């Protein structure tokens, strides 16, 4: 009986995963400007119709289409890695260029959310912690037209791609990439805005990272902490989010945890930003007055 029940559960969940893959495949065909195989395209459209999302897909702007596709591709790749390497310790150890590029493309949405929250300024000097392949650093430059960005990351496979991406974007004079851990990083010029994604920062490092970033902020500068992905009241969604956060070497840091950590590190005007977006992110802020 256990076998039949598990197979039934697997079938139900796989249907959802396959449906999601079909939606992203449809998005990517639009992104590539291709029709694809007519028979396959017809079945993709059938899945989209069954989900009732055709209007949403057709209404997406090009940039949003790329973000959604990248977000899903990254997490499906991480899910497959979990199946293939279930015993691997929690750490960001992905070197697959496809996964790294997808994750970087998905992270670019943070720049828009930061701007929509009224943070940042056109000429800000920005610190991007865990810059990865530079997707967010590039997005910050495009969102804040006179800004400069320093992207810090210890993972060389990602930084190698970041250098290519920054050069391709023509932003080598505005984006500086540094191979370093944030707790060891220093920059005497200081920053007006800093981004710290706690879901990629190991828990033992978080307090030290908060203290280090405060010392790097200019007077009046602001740190934006990305806290644990908001899963609402769904216990399964919360468990899955936390699983992939821990497996990526990050911290399961709630907004409340982040607020307390910022307070301990000496930040002023500590607060959580009211979410006005659907993206599963929570922002907590702390500033440095002097």
| Overall geometric form | globular
From the alpha carbons, calculate the radius of gyration and give it in angstroms. Answer: 20 Å
Spatial ordering of strands, largest sheet:
3-2-1-4-5-7-6
- If you average the pLDDT, what whole number results? 90
The CATH topology label of the largest domain is Rossmann fold
> How many strands?
7
How far apart lie the N and C ends? 65 Å
- Architecture per CATH nomenclature, i.e. the level-2 architecture of the largest domain: 3-Layer(aba) Sandwich
Succession of helices and strands: HHHHHHEHEHEEHEHHEE
The amount of beta strand, in percent, is 15-25%
What would you call the structural class? alpha/beta
Number of helices: 11
- Superfamily at the CATH H level of the largest domain? Vaccinia Virus protein VP39
Q: Major β-sheet, in short?
A: 7 strands, mixed
Helix % is 40-55%
Write a structural description.
This protein folds into 2 domains: 2-60, no CATH class; 97-287, Rossmann fold. It is 52% helix and 16% strand. The chain is built from 11 helices and 7 strands. The protein has a 7-stranded mixed β-sheet, sandwiched between helices. The longest helix has 31 residues, at 2-32.
In short:
This protein has eleven helices and seven strands. It has helices at 2-32, 38-51, 54-58, 62-84, 97-107, 109-116, 135-143, 156-168, 203-216, 235-247, 255-264, and strands at residues 125-129, 148-153, 175-179, 191-197, 217-227, 268-272, 282-287. The mean pLDDT is 90.
């Amino acid at each position: 009986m256990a076998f039949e029940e598990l197979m039934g559960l697997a079938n139900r969940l796989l249907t959802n995963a396959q449906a999601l893959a079909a939606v992203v495949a449809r998005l990517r065909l639009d992104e590539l400007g291709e029709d694809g195989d007519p028979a396959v395209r017809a079945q993709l459209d059938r899945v989209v119709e069954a989900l009732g999302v055709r209007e949403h897909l057709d209404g997406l702007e090009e940039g949003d289409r790329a973000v959604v596709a990248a977000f899903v591709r990254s997490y499906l790749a991480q899910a497959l890695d979990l199946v293939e390497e279930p015993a691997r310790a929690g750490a960001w150890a992905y070197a697959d260029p496809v996964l790294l590029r997808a994750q970087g493309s998905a992270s670019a949405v943070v720049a828009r959310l930061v701007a929509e929250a009224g943070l940042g300024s056109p000429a800000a000097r920005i610190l991007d912690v865990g810059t990865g392949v530079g997707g967010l650093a590039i997005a910050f430059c495009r969102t804040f037209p006179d800004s400069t960005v320093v992207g810090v990351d210890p993972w060389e496979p990602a930084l190698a791609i970041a250098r290519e991406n920054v050069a391709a974007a023509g932003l080598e004079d505005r984006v500086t990439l540094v191979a370093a851990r944030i707790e060891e990083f220093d920059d005497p010029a200081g920053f007006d805005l800093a981004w710290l994604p706690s879901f990629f920062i190991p828990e033992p490092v978080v307090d030290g990272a908060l203290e280090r970033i405060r010392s790097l902020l200019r007077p009046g500068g602001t740190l934006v902490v990305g806290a644990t992905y908001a899963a609402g009241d769904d216990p399964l969604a919360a468990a899955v989010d936390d699983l992939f956060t821990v497996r990526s070497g990050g911290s399961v840091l709630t907004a409340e945890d982040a607020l307390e950590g910022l307070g301990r590190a000496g930040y002023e005007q500590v607060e959580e930003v009211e979410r006005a977006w659907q993206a599963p992110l929570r922002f907590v802020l702390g500033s440095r007055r002097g």
